[in-house]
Amino acid sequence: MAANSSTGSATEPPGLETQRREIDSLNQNQQLRAGDSWYLLDKRWFDQWKEYVDTGDQNSSSYPGKIDNTELFQDLDSYHLKERLVENEDFVLVPAEAWHKLLSWYDMMDDQPPLERKVVDLPSTVKVEVYPVEVYLCLSSNLENTVPARFSRADKIHAIHQMVRQQFEVSDTAESRMWMRSTDTSSERLRNLNMSVLDACLSSGMTVIMEIRNVDGTWPTSRPQIMRNSADDQDSYRGPPGVCGLTNLGNTCFMNSALQCLSNIPPLTEYFLKNLYLEELNFSNPLGMKGEIAEAYADVIKQMWSGRHYSVVPRVFKTKVGHFASQFLGYQQHDSQELLSFLLDGLHEDLNRVKKKEYIELGDADGRPDQDVAEEAWHNHLRRNDSVIVDTFHGLFKSTLVCPECYKVSVTFDPFCYLSVPLPVSKERVMEVFYVSLDPTAKPAQYRLIVPKAGRVFDLCTALSQATDVPPSQMVVADVFNHRFYKIYQADEFLSSILDQDDIFVYQLSNGSVDQDGEEVVLAIYLRERSHYRDYGSGSNSYGTSLFGHPLLMSVPRAQCTQEELYQLLLRRLSRYVRPPDPSEEVEEEEEGEDGGEEEEEEELCKAQTNGVSDDEGEEDSEEAGPSKKEEEQSRESSQADGQNNGLPEASPGSKGEERAEESSLKSEPDRGSSTDESQSACGSTDINFQDANDGDQSAAAEPSGKEEEDEDEEEDGEEAATCAQANKRLPGRRHFGLRRKKALFTIQAVNSNGTTERGMGEAGSSFSFSSQPYIAIDWDPDMKKKYYNENEAEKYIKHQSMDVPHQQMTVQLQECIALFTTVETLEEENPWYCPTCKKHQLATKKLDLWSLPEVLIIHLKRFSYTKYSREKLETIVDFPLRNLDFSGFLLKKMVNSAEPPCRYDLISVSNHYGGLRDGHYTSYARNKDNSQWYYFDDSKVTFAREEQIVTNAAYLLFYQRQDKIRQPTVPPPVPSSTQPENHITSQTHDGVDGAISCVSMETD
Ligand SMILES: [Zn+2]
């Protein structure tokens, strides 16, 4: 295999403190300048690196290894970036200089391309464009033959034009015009080649078509079937106004959901339909958007309520939003509540009747009656803010802060546009873990445990202890990722650092009786398979290895850390899925290659060979022309798929299928980059000497172990030590293997926490202490592995009965959430209050109360919970009333006369979110203002909905209208499932199952 172009020769990294300082300062001080390159870096790798440099210990087991962006790619063939990656969750962005430093110090996983992205200068922002616009290019003469291409939003259409000409070899003299087409089949001319991709509303997934004028002077697209416009198709459509879908433009369901909710708010929609907005457009408000958001919104609403479309493409609206709020640009999933908040604010400023805002000093209540202070606050608010949004959505709440020291009370009245109400958060958490017993014949067992959310790893062990009767002190908890230990937890670490999606394994270590001489070593054990090719790319002569299977933790008496004893211990530990050879087929080592003085062999011997257990380098010699790594991985996967049929007739008991019903297989993790690295090994000593293994100065290993055991070992070890120590300078003439010696199934090698043994680790004099975690790898030859390692059995586990207990779905009343909103809370340390009396920041107590409510009340259920201890989406069912939501018990303002509006509300729309914390799908329910029928809006699809479908655990934003403002329907309700147009399917259940699948799919007809 040729040397990899992306892996430059790594330079010797500076000290850890220097590394940290250099990278930190580059990351912090680098400005975003248009045209500059920044690089995406996997967050996990970066965190690991930070942990590593923070330890200040070059030998620390947190050594991050090569830069590995595997998790950011959709697959390792196309190296396409996954969709919807989130900055600082999935990746971090580092400036070019920092990237090149890291690359030179750590190198990069083989074949991975660097993820370089450019800074772009867009109208409202300068940002790193993580997701450029990906479009397809084609000619109108052959719409099937498309070429994908990526452009920046700052690029001009001219650049696309040039690219098409180049790609399809269109002559410079040919007269051409450009079209863009989205999946909804409508096409638009790209007339202005100087327009930017952003301003042309070109977005990912669209096709750019070039047509070339025919020789007879006509244009090919004069044939309407090619470039028809979707608006023309719908000429004949007549349906109920407002019952209109919105096409998904690529992860825009959050926007569609919010738009449908707003569209069904009668006073707002009528304001636009009656063109009242035209007189109030505020072109001069510096906080506004020169009326552009209001106009784009008006366009969408007018189309939706024209009754002429069953679906509308809100492209212009989306682009305007992206223009003014960069966070909504691009191709990522967003929060419908964030968009709503932005939109209401944008509409308000664009329609603000106050043309010149005066400065108003806000005073404290100073003991005046609430009524006076509230009236003053509302009056002041209206002096600066007066619009249809304020008329419709703004209410007032009272905020009371009390200083814990001087008891100063500060009262203010603040307007609000929506209420964000908390959901009761459970103090407990359900965790699923795999328990690996000391008993080598026992399969791992999956447990579901209830632990305190704010608990520590010890609490997890205690909970598991109750289910297993094994004392917590015998347990070690580890996060297993990609066949290795991503992290081995200490008992006092917080459980909050464990995410729900992490694969947590708990290992039973010893029953406590082994502790005779007091010295026990906890070994982390990895399984590795040697690949057939030699890793020339890394500049060493070693064979590549890749991790497989599940790692193990095992405590071993220090005295038993010799090769031979460890080998036997491991054989026993793995006996469930590693078959010891039958006496009949026991491989007797035969001598090959009598001379053995060939340099190459000696090098391999040093590198790939371990401490003398295996004598199988004869085989390795013949493997130089082996398959490539990819082929090798495939063959490994297929042998895995073969399961029990791959030559393992005598697998351990229980593998024959009778237990199949209750057994499952541990998902084998995808092979995200096998670790191939030079295997400088702990050659040369009888003990697994971790000090030597990690010592760059191999002279420490030069001395053969003083322990004299069997003569065979002694001789062999001595030779190997010499080989390694002298780095091929002093070649031993010949190795004498015991001719009758049994061939070992695997060899044992000391490694680092990544399962690799890399150079540069450990410097002379720095010793690897037993107090930190020693790691070893069990290295298998592919053939031996195939023969003796039962992959199918290794992956098996059982489900403990705790897994059968269903998750309890929590249900709360909406009123409870509102009550929580008004509960006294103490400010958090990150957000203190400045007490004017004490003249310092205080952790005051804060209480919110509702003072007055708007005509349309938006309630935001805070399902996305970010606390110190957890980040989660709360799946609680909030039971909210469709009618008669009564706020009289919550309102502080006393009803002084009957002229005051009542405070009872009816539901008019709901924005739903299905799925998890970061992805998922948005839809909405809304009641049509004209016919009072409920509909379900799922992007371009609209269906009838029944009232009993509306309350689900997906409800995220609730829109209520005060009863005194609700008008009777103007048309009779439609009759479901009769002569409805296409978009009106009979009502169906919306349990979110189909909704949760994807929101990227677009409606095409
Ligand atoms: Zn105070």
Q: How would the global form be characterised? A: globular
What is the total tally of β strands?
41
Radius of gyration: 34 Å
Could you list the spans in which at least 5 consecutive residues all have pLDDT below 50?
Answer: 1-8, 223-234, 535-541, 589-662, 668-687, 690-740, 758-771, 978-982, 984-1005
Distance between the termini: 48 Å
What bound compounds does this protein have? zinc ion
Please summarize the sheet with the most strands.
Answer: 9 strands, mixed
Q: Give me the number of helical elements.
A: 23
Overall pLDDT: 76
Structural class assignment: alpha+beta
Helix content: 10-25%
In terms of DSSP E residues, the strand content is: 15-25%
What are the salient characteristics of this protein?
alpha+beta; seven-stranded mixed β-sheet; 22% helix; disordered N terminus; binds zinc ion
Task: Outline the structure in words.
The structure is a single chain. This protein has 1005 residues and is α+β, with helices and mostly antiparallel strands. Helices cover 22% and strands 23% of the residues. Helix 1 (16-29) crosses helix 2 (43-55). The longest helix is centred in the middle third of the chain and has 15 residues, at 336-350. The N terminus and C terminus are likely disordered. Bound molecules: zinc ion (ZN). The site of zinc ion has 8 residues, from loops.
